[in-house]
Amino acid sequence: MLKLSGEVLADRKGDGINADSLVWIAKELAKVRKAGFEIAVVVGGGNIWRYRDTKAAGIERTTSDYMGMLATVMNGVALQSGLEKIGVPCRVMSAIGIPQLAERYIRQKAVRHLAKGRVLVCAGGTGNPYFTTDTAAALRAVELDCDTLLKATKVDGVYDADPEKVKGARRYDKLSYDEAIRKNLQVMDQAAFALCREGKMAIRVFDMRKPNAILQAAMGKGRGTVVS
């Protein structure tokens, strides 16, 4: 299971869907599939809509969260288009019903798509407000019996402080779920860590910006932090 933020699809300002970014991610996922891995992806929607960035609009939290779920479907369909353009079969399954764009998420169908070699994009979050796409990724990873949850970020692992802001921030090679929760490390939310702990789902946090980084992470290689 690969968790992507919506921002990885965005332009330099962090908004919308950038064509070059979409093509690059599609090609990186194609490498992982070619290596023989079954791939499920959860993509966020922050490049289109995020509650904390839009509070000034006065939209009530529950409604805003559903708008965010719609944004993840938009990103998921864009990713599907990018993959199919380079010959990689892909299916988008959504936790909220939008039959014109995506299949409704049903676990048995999702497992069959993976078994047939299709990249599976899980959109629509969990289908419920107040849950992040990190939690959705943890839920789907456990539900689909994935080997690992790969958390793609802009830094090469989990640090005890933001390495872009704090000089000398220390990177962890390994962490336990309890340590990640107790230290309130912000790379994923607490609910996601708790779900992975319950399901014994290892999390690998890595920097996805370099070529082959996703493939290396899927193989258990490369620089990063493992939470288990």
Précis, in short:
By secondary structure, the protein is α/β, with parallel strands linked by helices. Helices cover 36% and strands 18% of the residues.
Topology:
Layout: E1 2-4, H1 19-34, E2 40-43, H2 61-85, E3 90-94, E4 103-104, H3 107-115, E5 119-123, H4 133-143, E6 148-153, E7 158-159, E8 171-172, E9 174-175, H5 177-182, H6 190-199, E10 202-207, H7 213-218, E11 225-227
Parallel strand pairs: 1-2, 1-6, 2-5, 3-4, 3-5, 6-10, 9-11
Antiparallel strand pairs: 7-8, 10-11
Helix pairs in contact: 1-2, 4-6
Would you give an account of this structure?
This protein has 228 residues and is an alpha/beta fold. The protein has a single domain, classed as Carbamate kinase (3-Layer(aba) Sandwich). The strands form 2 sheets. It has a 9-stranded mixed sheet, sandwiched between helices. The mean pLDDT is 94.
